[in-house]
Design a protein that fits this description.
The structure is a homodimer. Chain A is α+β, with helices and mostly antiparallel strands. In chain A, 32% of the residues lie in helices and 19% in strands. Chain A has three domains: 262 residues, Uridine Diphospho-n-acetylenolpyruvylglucosamine Reductase, domain 3 (2-Layer Sandwich); 107 residues, Alpha-Beta Plaits (2-Layer Sandwich), CATH 3.30.70; 107 residues, GMP Synthetase, Chain A, domain 3 (2-Layer Sandwich), CATH 3.30.300. Chain A starts with 19 loop residues before the first helix and ends in a 14-residue tail after the last helix.
Chain lengths: 532, 532
């Protein structure tokens, strides 16, 4: 049975959505928070309503069969999934729709597409699942310089090509979506175990290009460590790195492309390091009096070398908002897993670390505890969250997240400062208080990756400027206090002003020089990371 | 009390050497191996005997106090510690001595030195401990292009500048030698735990520039993962990366400089991630019938997620040669350590993995087992090895090592092929059989880092060509069979022909473009990694 089409507005495929129960749970939280009975609701335009600018370029006959300028194809590839993306989608603003969307099925077709784009002077936007929340897949072209925009959708390149059971690795095409990738590995008893929140609707190539953060809260936090080798197609030729478990031969070639966000070339396949499927588990939730107490427990665990698969912390308000807690305590969701050995000694020591900082374990523990109780509720809420935005934006609810990382010595002051700046900006932008919560998505021996969520009641017609005011204040403060503008959401076009302050100027100049070698005409994803 | 000077020929300081017992143990092994009673021995020239070319450049008065063109300073900085380095030292060939050696004490002095070198057109050779075995610190200049060579010795910049106990990190100057670095951390209960074989006579900056491999046999194998941020001084300005526990903001700036081997800039300091000093240990040695059986045990451990600190394997011959075994079995040296918790459950599971592949644990286990028995003997032999070369080369013994990495699926065929090619080359070069042994220095879930040692009986006057023939054959085979030309010894000038085959051409072009931005005149360590 053919799958439904991907939505042009919203998360996932047509027909998929939050359930009524989920929606009323979330909306009730907002009603209570803002003292509102009903929302002013606007309906997103249907596909038939959309007016797209006429395409400025058309593919040659040889490429026409894998290209489309159909309204659905162009609309669905216009934006990512950021807050302002939804606002513009709601307003029916598709002025920046790509002119052509191509669906290559192999490297040689990508080479031909790059050649064609070069010959007509069109920008090339690599596209995996389109889940970017940082303006990574939206062209914002200098129209004098670029004569069109070609979006290159890798979705047809989703096969696992080769499996090396001895080394636990697989060669996988970059367009593989999370579920299809895992389904192909499962018969071999293997798993990539990279489960970003976007898992269902994002791709391997997208994860690598954006340094995606995944399932593991410690140790293997980013996709980076799972990359054994890469194939990258650039306008100047093909790059294939050597498949090695480790190497010390010069700066890592892979690391130049990991996080390159489509500006250096198109990642078309990768050998990926895999895991055995877990057979042993231990986990549960631990309550702490507040976020800082939980942070001290997390720090002790992170520095103990125990490497829990899950070790996430929700502040009391975030626990309440997601239904994982009653708002009186911060919650740590803790889990160990292994395909090799029972993990009880690991779990027991981690719980001791928690107790040392006042943590109290929830009653239920054991094999499946991670799917029950606070941990299970949190897990389910986490997976369903992306479906929320298409219901909130039409109601003028401003809700977004931003994430960073900071060393432990600075964490508490950093948290308070960033939270205060964001709260103040919400008041300024909307005229009333909102809410800012914090969780840890990943933790390191030297510091956490705090993930902030904010909620504000906006006003139709002003949502983007209101959102922008809050985003600007939060990001300014993040950078001023020493954090990174992104731990795993990437830079794209939206984070550029802060990324530019964060990264050394001479590094940007070096990256630009490298780009000029690989993409001398500056066609690849212009505006992302650096100016072309 | 002032320390003795570093030797101009040999390892370490004047007065340090192998003991008579150590020397006779090693020489007896060679006598038996080659059926030789006595060696034709040549004495290395004394410092007074050396004839160095007159320096071609002289520093300006402002820099003169931190510069030297003294014979000892120039001779000591002429070579690294590779086999051909010793042969040329033995022959009194110091034609490539640097013209000037500078000892800066701070970044501003480095900036002044770079400016001066630029103004006179001199090449700049960054120098840490000078332990390179790949021609990393020896200029081989195009004399028409470069008007001299300035070696920049970071040895005066060895302080731990700042400690962040909460994040377990320290800001350390790049010229810190291993023992001094650890001595400064010890009062804080912290340790970097990076113990390459060169530990005593190599520096933090050298480790980072060459992607040094250290103490940990699994997980944190290279220095790379311990780097939190860097300061790099380039001819175009200073680069300071942001101190972060993790980030997803574009390609990692740190990773461009880690492994850059002095061609992009001078690493002058780094924030390094540290460990608590271990309080709990478990370890011992395990005997296997042969290397491949041990490899299967190691693979199981590496894929189990147990992360032993030590997990090294010696083939039967290597175990015999170092005194760790009787030659009848391969030996695995296994150790777990923690500053946080008892590690018995980890050790017990690792021993089960060994038993599954026929491994038999040595009787002694427990807290200090890693310093006793086969493990202890191996450890001591490992640390003392660098002192051997200055006694072997004068006796025309050819003994060297090379190291690589390969995925598990290819390991056995790879091992046999590389070993056979090296053995054949020894016969061709010396007219009689030699010996090739293998151990694993580091292991990954997807493959080991095999480390080969070879022994041959050479002839004075022909040592370099004999060595070169063997090195060439071994390296050709390594690359043909899919390995890396180096896992942790670096590329330098000596590994260039094979590195050039291994790394993608477009990556080299990108690196060259980045270098041109940072070092537009191509003065920094010319000939290393890429042509300037």
């Amino acid at each position: 049975m053919a799958e439904a089409r991907l939505k042009h507005f919203g998360w996932g495929r047509e027909g998929e959505a939050m359930t009524e129960d989920e929606e009323s749970f979330v909306l009730n939280r907002y009603r209570q928070r803002f003292g509102i009975d009903r929302f002013e609701e606007r309906a997103p335009p249907t596909l038939q309503d959309l007016k797209l600018p006429a395409p400025r370029i058309a593919p040659p006959a040889s490429l026409a069969p894998i290209c489309s300028s159909d309204t659905h194809d162009r609309a669905r590839h216009t934006y990512g999934k950021s807050y302002p993306d939804y606002v513009r989608g709601l307003a029916g603003d598709y002025a920046v729709a790509p002119d052509v969307v191509a669906y290559p099925g192999r490297d040689s077709e990508i080479v031909a597409l790059l050649d064609w784009a070069g010959s007509v002077g069109a920008a090339i936007i690599p596209f995996g699942g389109g889940s970017s929340v940082v303006g990574g897949v939206e062209h914002r072209l200098d129209r004098a310089r670029y004569r069109g925009a070609l979006t290159l959708d890798l979705g047809r390149m989703g096969r696992v090509l080769e499996i090396d059971r001895a080394s636990r690795a697989a060669r996988i095409e970059a367009g593989a979506f999370g579920p299809a990738l895992e389904a192909q590995l499962k018969p071999h008893g293997l798993t990539l175990r990279h489960f970003p929140q976007s898992f269902e609707y994002s791709t391997l190539g997208g994860w690598i290009a954006t340094r995606s953060g995944g399932h593991f809260a410690t140790l293997y936090t980013h996709i980076d460590d799972f990359v054994e080798s890469l194939v990258v197609v650039t306008p100047q030729g093909r790059i294939e790195t050597r498949r090695l478990p480790g190497s010390g031969a010069g700066p890592s070639p892979d690391r130049l492309f990991i996080g390159s966000e489509g500006i250096l070339g198109i990642i078309t396949e990768a050998w990926m390091r895999l895991q055995d499927r877990p057979r042993f588990r231990a986990g549960g939730a631990v309550r702490f009096k507040d976020l800082f107490a939980a942070a001290r427990g997390v720090r002790m665990i992170a520095q103990a070398g125990l490497f829990p698969a899950n070790c996430r912390v929700l502040d009391a308000q975030e626990a309440l908002n997601t239904g994982a807690g009653d708002g009186s305590a911060a919650i740590m969701v803790l889990a160990f897993e292994s395909g090799d050995h029972p993990v009880e000694p690991w779990m027991q020591r981690a719980l001791e670390c928690c107790r040392d900082h006042g943590g109290i374990a929830e009653a239920e523990e054991g094999a499946d505890a991670h799917r029950e109780g606070a941990a299970g509720i949190w897990r389910n809420a986490f997976i369903r969250m992306p479906y929320g935005r298409e219901r909130m934006v039409p109601r003028a609810i401003i809700s977004d997240t931003f994430e960073t990382a900071i060393t432990w010595d600075r964490f508490e002051a950093f948290h308070d400062s960033v939270k205060a700046a964001t709260e103040a900006a919400i008041r300024e932008a909307t005229g009333r208080p909102g809410q800012v919560t914090c969780r840890f998505t990943h933790v390191y021996p030297d510091g956490p990756a705090p993930y902030f969520t904010f909620h504000a009641m906006g006003r139709h017609g002003h949502l983007i400027e209101q959102w922008q005011h809050i985003k600007q204040a939060a990001s300014d403060r993040l950078i001023a206090e020493g954090g990174t503008i992104t731990h795993h959401h990437a830079v794209g076009r939206d984070h550029r002003p802060w990324y530019d302050r964060q990264r050394p100027e001479l590094f940007a100049a070096s990256l630009k020089a490298a780009k000029h070698v690989l993409d001398p005409r500056g066609l690849l994803n212009p505006g992302v990371l650096i100016d072309p």
